[in-house]
Amino acid sequence: MQDVLRRNNVRVFGDPTGRPMVFAHGFGCDQHMWRAITPAFEGYRIVLFDHVGHGGSDRTAYSRAAYDTLHGYADAVLEIAEALDLRNAVFVGHSVSGMIGVLAAIAEPDRFTDLILVSPSPRYVDDDGYRGGFARAEIDELLDALDSNYLGWSSAMAPVIMGRPDRPELAEELTNSFCRTDPEIAKDFARVTFLSDNRGDLAKVASRTLVLQCAEDAIAPQEVGRYVAAQIPDSEFVLLDAVGHCPNLSAPEQTIAAMQDFLATS
Q1: Which residues of the chain register pLDDT less than 70?
Q2: How far is CA 200 from CA 26, 52, 110, 232, 248, in A?
């Protein structure tokens, strides 16, 4: 158990007798990105962690073979859940971690009975009858830029992802988070993230689900969030009056209110 918790830099706090609530960060981020959200849920047993290669995780635990699909990251989440004996938990996943949570909940539905997906996307590449937000050529260009100059890519993309030019400190924080992530692992994770296609998994979700979407998001347009909610059987969609891909940082009050409303009915 200690190996699992150390590998993913797991922190547990809040009410030890409360319902478990697991927060999973997105690409290039770490658990610190939830700092504006978790204080509102102190009545829960809060679990934070870092994906391997991010934040304070054990980077030596990474292997490309183990993490070559999002299933590898979902398996790591389930190992954390097993180590902490989590049942009937709430899983809150930002961006790519939304699909990681979907896969974990499908594999072991008793672990995560409620899902909160913040700016999720099951596929970033456009397809016939489906808008993911990017043409395949755009994704290839993005990955090539990341390969050739990770730090330059990070500083250029962070303001786009955050979408708040009026608050440059948020883009700077995201840039710094990207820079703390192991560059080689980040490149692998980017490929796994942006080339994944989990549309076929959504209908398998038995967990009650909330999909949170910003009105303007350069990474996951509104159509994506509505698609996710339409495909998951027991789900609801909430459109936040906010911009950017990270409402947990840029619009925490709205994000908290939507989460609390959803959980109040569980």
Answers
A1: 179
A2: 21, 26, 21, 10, 27
Tell me the sheet residues that pair with 238: 212
Distance CA 32, CA 35 (A): 6
CA dist., res. 116 & res. 76, Å (int): 19
What's the structural domain count of the chain? 1
Which residues are known catalytic residues?
95, 217, 245
Domain residues for the domain of 112 are: 2-264
Token couple for 100: 């990681």
DSSP string, 99-121: HHHHHHHHH-TTTEEEEEEES--
Residue 177 confidence (pLDDT): 77
* DSSP-derived 3-state class of residue 93: strand
Contacts of 212 (CB under 8 A, 6+ apart): 116, 117, 118, 119, 225, 238, 240, 247, 255, 258, 259
DSSP annotation string for 144-182: HHHHH-HHHHHHHHHHHHH--TT-HHHHHHHHHHHHHS-
- pLDDT single digits (tens) 84-135: 999 999 999 999 999 999 999 999 999 999 999 999 999 999 999 999 999 9
Tell me phi and psi for residue 246, to 5 degrees.
Answer: -130, 65
- Residue 149's pLDDT is 86
Report the CATH number at residue 51. Answer: 3.40.50.1820
What are all long-range contacts of 172-175, with beta carbons under 8 Å and residues at least 24 apart?
Answer: 173/249, 174/28, 174/29, 174/246, 174/249
Can you give the pTM of this predicted structure?
0.95
Q: How far apart are CA 236 and CA 226, in angstroms?
A: 9
